[in-house]
Task: structure prediction
Amino acid sequence: AMDGAPPPTSPTGLSAYVAVSQLLGLTLLATTGAWLGRYRGGVAWHSPLQFNAHPLCMVLGMVFLQGDALLVYRVFRHEAKRSTKALHALLHGLALVIALVGIIAVFESHRTKGIPDMYSLHSWCGMAAFVLYLLQWLLGCGFFLFPGASFSLRGRYKPQHIFFGIALFILSITSCLLGITEMLLFKISDSYSHFVPEGILANTLGMLLVAFGLVVGYVLTREEWKRPPLAEELALSMDFKTLTEGESPGGGS
Result:
């Protein structure tokens, strides 16, 4: 940018949608806490309440933090690409750690109570989401964050990385919805159909999860809201391609 030029701004509407996504995200976290605190006794480790750490951690890690990690490239549009990549990877890594705590909580709780593991559709979808999310994070770090991958290899993998990023976000929300339904049917199956307050609150949480996913998805798929490459990034990309692929900056072989 030229000296004295006005600072770059975000496209019209982007900031509003990002703000709505964060409001929805914080509201769904508060709703999860309210459900567990008001109706399920709260959260405590190494106690009968250990299971409740599972839904809290999965909503926080696999939904809220994963969604925010996906939004990084839309929000930090004019910062250095390296810093944006690092923040993207850091948020995903933090989401994985929190989700792992949630998985440990449910397995330990099941073992303590003599409940079998991994038999429900929720558990299958949830474990698939976590394992694939971990693989996605490792591949992303290997291809984009650490040096070594060639320019053409990064270019070929990038579309897959973007697709599976959005797909795993959808799968994570789906797993949470299945988990909410499963928990309600286990805990209040006799009264759920009578529109009891706990059922209404949990259903509201489900709708907040859907709304959060829709807003994040909308921001991610608006073509004009994608992060534009900075001038120095374009120059570095061409230099990197020349060094690693033996091609001229003009693209000739």
